[in-house]
Design a protein that fits this description.
Elements: H1 2-28, H2 30-66, H3 71-125, H4 131-149, H5 151-164, H6 166-181, H7 183-193, H8 196-238, H9 243-253, H10 259-275, H11 277-303, H12 311-353
Helix pairs in contact: 2-3, 2-6, 3-4, 3-6, 8-9, 8-11, 8-12, 9-10, 10-11
């Protein structure tokens, strides 16, 4: 008996060592497969974006088809409305966005100078604090100044990467059209390639994920668009510089629960404060009203409680997301958490049934 146990432990140890050696060898030959992985990731980006757009538009097409509209006609109409609307918005807003970006880059040295003056004043005010707090705040201010100094370069680099990725904007509409047109065929292929014993559980799992995740994503995108549009109009009425850029930023950050309101408001408040204290007060008031509209009207009506997650869980997921992937982690934290929740519920159900 002891001899048999010893042999089992030797086999397990040998397998573990073999696996570790394979991993080590795989990492050693990384110069061979990293370029291939990079190419595959570049190819996967337009496919992923096209898949997300298809996933968002498919329910609209299904609803149109349910009202008697032939599916090919519904696909063509929704496709033209979606991409035609995007093309029109880009064409109409692009000159204004470029102009405001140019003005922002030109005024960036002045903005950085004002922020540095504020930081110097802030440093003088905290001299009465304990040394430990002074050192921590000084490190924080140094990091903030470094981020501000590199902001212009990062904006230019981002614009350059967007222009360099222009081929994606050409390929994605074609991918979306064929994915929408052949959506049912893709479902049939996925059904047949799935083993029979997993089909029933797989369909239930996808249905639950779609119910939890799909409603949240579609609703949150619509809420963010409404918030961004209201912010643009409000900032333009107040007279805050760069209302389109700041409004777009507020709308995009609104996708992030809880933290998005603060991230989106920060640039607008800073720009308004550099102009005048009256504009600062009106901007803060606008942000407050905007958050009340979003929290009490838009989100409850459009998004509701589609993910059914406790706020504490959402906060923990956001903290994990920002630590692992930065801003992208904040955006993906709630969708990933909702999928994990569905996975755990299905695992518990299957384990109880077996």
């Amino acid at each position: 008996m002891e001899h048999t146990k010893g042999i089992k432990w030797i086999i397990r140890l040998s397998i573990t060592i073999l696996v570790l050696l394979c991993i080590y060898f795989f990492l050693q030959v990384s110069p061979l497969w990293l370029p291939v992985l990079e190419v595959l990731s570049r190819v996967a980006i337009p496919l992923l974006i096209a898949g997300i757009i298809t996933y968002l538009l498919h329910p609209i097409i299904e609803n149109a088809h349910a009202y008697g509209l032939p599916r090919p006609v519904a696909v063509l109409i929704i496709y033209l409305l979606f991409f035609g609307g995007i093309a029109y918005l880009i064409t109409a807003a692009f000159p204004y966005v470029v102009e405001q970006l140019r003005e922002f880059v030109e005024n960036l040295p002045y903005i950085i100078q004002q922020i540095q003056q504020w930081s110097n004043l802030f440093e003088r005010q905290i001299n009465a604090l304990p040394e430990g707090m002074q050192a921590q705040l000084a490190d924080w201010m140094t990091g903030l100044e470094a981020q501000a100094d590199s902001l212009g370069e990062r904006i230019i680099d981002t614009l350059g990467s967007i222009i360099g990725s222009f081929i994606y904007f050409i390929v994605i509409p074609f991918l979306v059209f064929y994915l929408l047109k052949d959506y049912q065929l893709i479902e049939k292929v996925a059904w047949y390639v799935t083993p029979k014993k997993w089909r029933k559980e797989g369909v239930a799992f996808i249905r639950d994920v779609d119910h939890s995740l799909g409603n949240y994503i579609r609703g949150q995108i619509l809420v963010s668009m409404c918030v961004g549009l209201i912010a643009m109009i409000g900032l333009w009425i107040i007279g805050v510089p760069y209302p389109i850029i700041l409004g777009l930023f507020i709308g995009m950050t609104d996708i992030i629960p809880y933290f998005g309101a603060f991230l989106g408001a920060f640039p607008a408040v800073i720009v308004a404060g550099l102009h005048s204290w009256q504009m600062l007060i009106f901007t803060v008031l606008l942000i407050f009203i905007l958050q009340q509209i979003e929290g009490n009207i838009l989100s409850p009506v459009i998004v509701g409680k589609s993910v059914h997650l406790h706020p504490i869980l959402i906060m923990i997921a956001l903290l994990i997301g920002v630590e692992t992937a930065g801003i992208l982690g904040l955006v993906l934290a709630v969708p990933v958490l909702s999928v994990v929740k569905v996975v755990l519920l299905h695992l518990r159900t299957n384990l109880l049934n077996h």
